[in-house]
Backbone:
């Protein structure tokens, strides 16, 4: 699963192929989507959307990039669709995210413990 998460993280600013994610997890696309949503209680598409919007929020707060450029970087075809998604997730529009003291939601990368780590916990 961690290889699949690595693939997702490396491709958040590009095209993410479900087939590639599933191959990283050594299962079919169908199995991966079911397993992912069962484990995380969120769909794969929603997880990717939240991660992209989290990284976009970080860039808005830490750079002078234009909102439209950040929207395009994270896969939104228009600033309007980006602003709508951003508002739904963070509760503020992208321009307000740059104001000091604005609270934004952050969805960190998922990391799955390895079998070795699980064995160590039992000892």
Residues:
């Amino acid at each position: 699963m961690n290889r699949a998460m690595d693939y997702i993280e490396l491709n958040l600013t590009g095209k993410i192929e479900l087939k590639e994610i599933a191959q990283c997890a050594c299962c079919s696309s169908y199995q991966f989507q079911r397993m992912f949503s069962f484990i995380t209680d969120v769909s794969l598409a929603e997880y990717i959307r939240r991660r992209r919007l989290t990284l976009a929020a970080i860039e808005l707060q830490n750079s002078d990039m234009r909102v439209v450029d950040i929207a395009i970087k994270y896969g939104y075809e228009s600033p309007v669709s980006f602003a709508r998604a951003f508002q739904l997730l963070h509760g503020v529009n992208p321009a307000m995210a740059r104001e000091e003291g604005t609270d934004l939601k952050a969805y960190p990368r998922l990391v799955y413990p390895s079998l070795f780590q699980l064995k160590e916990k039992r000892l």
The helical segments are 2-10, 18-24, 29-40, 44-62, 67-73, 79-90, 115-122. Residues 23 and 112 are 17 Å apart (CA to CA).
